[in-house]
Amino acid sequence: MKHNFGAGPGILPQEVLKQAAEAVLNFNNSGLSILEISHRTADFESVVSEACSLVKELLNLNDDYAITFLHGGASTQFAMVPYNLLGEGETAAYLDSGTWASKAIKEAKFFGNVNVVASSKEANYTYIPKEYSIPTDAKYFHVTSNNTIYGTQLHEFPESPVPLVSDMSSDIFSRVFDANKFGLIYAGAQKNMGAAGVALAVVKKELLGKIERKIPAMFNYQLHIDNGSMYNTPPVFAIYVAMLTLRWVKEQGGVAAMEKINNKKAATLYAEIDRNPLFKGTCAVEDRSRMNVCFVMDNADIEKEFLDFAKKADIVGLKGHRSVGGFRASIYNALPQSSVDHLVSIMQQFEQLKK
Ligand code: PLP
């Protein structure tokens, strides 16, 4: 068995993989593969509707929200958010907390004015900026809840005078938060929610239809919502895997249960990073992510040796992103505590080896 610490696509529950594999051969005992069924069938319509209900239930959303599954990954959402919410000449506020946030900022500039209220770029995004004010005339305030590359996370969301929009690609369904405080939430599925190829958007309905601009069909939230995520051929298999993953989250006890498990995993790993003299964390302690744990070695010359040592012990996906270096252990929902314990024991064995 491999211990998959990869950042994205990330680890999925074994049960989900088995069910998805079965459906590739024979979906719902139809004698057809999920890959060859029409999306306009009652069977698939019920998959989409169950996926939407699970999102609503797991996030405890009230009826002000619409849920839709879209193509194009989270990166398309960087453009789709301002396309739909930011009129020409209007301003949106953004928090620049990492590479993905800065890409979202870049896209928003195509549509209107962007006010970057704070940035931690000068410190290579090792912390979450906290000293800023949100302009009350902004159309929305955009934050990245978890910075996958740098391993920082917003542990508390700001009180915002304007609709709060969040990219939650790498921590959705991993912790409890009040989703009803948000104007819009989006997430690529391939970390905590399923396979690559689909993104989730949770949209407060009242925010739509407020700008003059004409929006091409594939970028128009309202159109996708009105068509039940089936304006065109949806990413059928990716939506199915997302539905299975959401079912699995519910079976584990929902988001609160996931949070408890995730907190324990993160605490175990950070404790070892702080104890083991060979390793050190890369981010401000108070902003450490409970999904992507970034760390380096005091002696960078032996990092490669540690990676090889870990690889021999069936640990995969541990190499850090090139902009941070070192290691990144992604400990998404589906990663069991036993994999974290295994990594810790390998770090301890390596310590002994180097004594
Ligand atoms: N936002 C965050 C926080 C991410 O971690 C990623 C990918 O890792 C993206 C956006 C981009 O997602 P996609 O590749 O689905 O466009």
TrEMBL record:
Annotated Gene3D superfamilies: Aspartate Aminotransferase, domain 1, Type I PLP-dependent aspartate aminotransferase-like (Major domain)
Residue intervals of the Aminotransferase class V domain: 4-343
N6-(pyridoxal phosphate)lysine modified-residue sites: 191
Keyword Cytoplasm tagged: yes
Compartments, record wording: Cytoplasm
Any single GO BP term: L-serine biosynthetic process
PROSITE patterns, per the entry: AA_TRANSFER_CLASS_5
Protein name: Phosphoserine aminotransferase
Source organism of this protein record: Solitalea agri
